[in-house]
């Protein structure tokens, strides 16, 4: 009887456990996927001491040098205060330079320094590996479709975000 009970316990432990109702909720799944992405990014990019938001902001500045905080916030979907905080940290590391706008002295414009540009270029491979690892469980043929669906969800719900993305 004891052997049969042990065998039944072993079979029960090996049986797949049903998932919680959370697994049918897109918000939970998106949050969990974000956690996974953050861990992968941190692992691949640990030597650079840059967060995903910092890298995103630096990428935006690489493409749009001289952007102001409002424009950067709209590109990244973060508020102006967070942009200012991220810019301050990057400036303290010598990766970003800030300057007052010529037409509007209240406006702060941001530019990557030469060191900042080099860091964005140097990080590209590590960042790309994190993205590839995130998508690796999907068959290659489905990755583009998945990305298109993410963009569709974001575009279709942009008005509900804390900070609107530029359209």
Descriptive notes:
The chain is mainly α. The protein has one domain: Arc Repressor Mutant, subunit A (Orthogonal Bundle). Helix content is 63%, strand content 7%. It contains seven helices and three strands; from the N terminus they run αααβααββαα. It has helices at 2-14, 26-45, 52-63, 69-76, 80-92, 114-135, 140-157, and strands at 67-68, 96-100, 108-112. The protein has a three-stranded antiparallel β-sheet. A hairpin with a 7-residue loop joins strand 2 (96-100) and strand 3 (108-112). It is elongated, with a radius of gyration of 22 Å. The model has no long low-confidence stretch (mean pLDDT 89).
Beta-strand percentage range: 5-15%
Query: How many strand segments?
Result: 3
Number of helices: 7
State the CATH class: Mainly Alpha
Shape: elongated
The CATH superfamily bears the name: Winged helix-like DNA-binding domain superfamily/Winged helix DNA-binding domain
What is the number of independent domains? 1
Look at the structure and give the mean pLDDT.
Answer: 89
Weakly predicted, low-confidence segments: none
Cα-based radius of gyration, to the nearest Å: 22 Å
User: In angstroms, what separates the terminal alpha carbons?
Assistant: 68 Å
Helix content: 55-70%
Multimer state: single chain
**Main sheet summary:** 3 strands, antiparallel
CATH architectural arrangement: Orthogonal Bundle
CATH topology: Arc Repressor Mutant, subunit A
Walk across the major sheet and give the strand order: 1-3-2
């Amino acid at each position: 009887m004891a052997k049969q009970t042990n065998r039944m316990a072993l079979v029960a432990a090996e049986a797949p456990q049903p998932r919680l109702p959370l697994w049918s909720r897109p918000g939970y799944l998106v949050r969990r996927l974000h956690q996974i992405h953050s861990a992968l990014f941190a692992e691949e990019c640990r030597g650079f001491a840059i967060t995903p938001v910092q890298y995103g902001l630096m990428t935006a500045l690489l493409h749009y040098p001289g952007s102001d905080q409002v424009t950067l916030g709209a590109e990244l979907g973060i508020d102006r205060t967070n942009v200012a905080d991220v810019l301050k940290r990057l400036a303290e590391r010598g990766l970003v330079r800030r300057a007052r706008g010529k037409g509007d002295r209240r406006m702060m414009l941001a530019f990557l320094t030469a060191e900042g540009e080099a860091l964005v270029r140097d990080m590209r491979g590590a960042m790309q590996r994190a993205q590839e690892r995130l998508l690796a469980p999907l068959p290659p043929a489905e990755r583009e479709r998945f990305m298109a669906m993410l963009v569709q969800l974001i575009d279709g719900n942009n008005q509900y975000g804390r900070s609107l993305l530029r359209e």
